[in-house]
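To close the chapter, one final illustration. This time we ask the reader to focus less on the individual chains and more on the assembly as a whole: which components sit near each other, and how the overall shape emerges from the parts.
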Amino acid sequence: MKIMVPLLIVFIGGMLMTFQYYIDIPLLNNIYKGVLDWHMVIAVFALVIAVKSLIERQWKNFRQKTEHPVYPLTTLISFFAVVLLGIFFGLKQGSPVNFIYNNFLVPLQATIFSLLAFYISSAAYRAFRAKNFSSTVLLIAAMIVVMGRIPLGDLIATWTTISISGKDFAILDFPGWTRWILTVPNVGIKRAFIFGITLGIVSTSLKVILGIERGWLK
Amino acid sequence: MKLHRRLVYFLLLAFILVPMLFGLTFKVKPTKPVMTFFDSVAELSPGDYIAVTLSFDPSTKAELVPMLKALTENIFENGLNVIFLNPQNINISDLGFSVISDIASKNGKIENSDWYYLGFVPGDKAVYQKLGEDLYSVYPASMHGVKLNSTKLYEDVKNLRDVKLLIDLADGNSTVDLLTYLSTKYDVPMAAGVTAVMASEYYPYLESGQLKGLLGGLRGAAEYETLLNVSGRARRGMAAQTLAHILIMLLVLMGNIEYFMSKRKNG
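The assembled structure is written out below.
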């Protein structure tokens, strides 16, 4: 019973939603709309679980006197401060939460992400080597795409354009080569990935709906 | 001779700062995905509705806010009505609103009449599907609490099937989710603006015609500004990005020369 009931719910739910996509029946459409509402309600509960988990984890880290207890403490204080300020002063423009958002969150996130540029440049110098055939192909493709995506690539293409029997032809056509890389090998490989992943999703979903895959019950 | 990591950092900082300080700009030639995007917006008639989802965090604002600015300018210039929403990322609500409201007030556009900002709701993919069924069960009010059933939007748009174009500005997987759960299912034409590192992911959707255009990173925003004939933050930023890319290429070249020299030395 403990196994059969959940399997039955998944089977009926999965089948209904699959048929609903292809067959236009008002009853199925109404069930579908109801399921979407449930999904959104459950998502709100997921937020509650996330908050509970965050508080528990950070409090545990603080109590266990880890190497840097200031970090979990900062997380907890920031969390409660923002929640309380939001409850008492609202979220409108000019509110304390809005001030914290504009003057802490936005610059902090932008700064952390910007630091990537420095790490990438250092890593490119130290690690991007033509050690074998595959890495050489990757290196050449990367250099062409970089050149094709910056205005210098456009300029070089213009400078090296010659006219052959009335037709313009760029000798170093970085934008054209970039376009070819992006629209031919890139699209082909990406499509193969998409099809492979999608077929995997379909087969796994079918296994779950038909009760063949039961790992989720444990 | 090996370059010290700090010297690499310093060089990059200099290559980024110098063009910004001296106001250097480069001409950017628009590419086909950007021109298709621009045409998709241009072919709409004044009064048509368009929806723009902001699916990014402030961390990628350097690439996506110039895109949002150029796009919003263009939408308002063309007299389109626009619904902005961010069902994926709660963190963009305030930043997105302040960018849009600045441009709207410059263009004399009124909130909750010419444009609507609906903000965030939790629910992820279920929200996308629900938007294709009933907009007001997901968003009964705007982000600042204005009841939508008292606005013109309520009369004109029942769900996102009623918008002529859906645009996603994203730094994550939201574009694929919107294509799967909203655009393809409910037949809503869609275009996207994404970060540069993600742009290659979306070429299959562009080639298949599922995306009506694609803006890729700062370059995409700069191309859009070129088509609009304005010199905004993206075109100014392209000079810094160009020099930074040239430096990275030189570093890769130097690294490889060193590698082959040491390989030769060690036999």
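The CA atoms of residues 46 and 52 of chain A lie 10 Å apart. The longest strand of chain A covers residues 161-164. With these observations in hand, you are ready for the problems at the end of the chapter.
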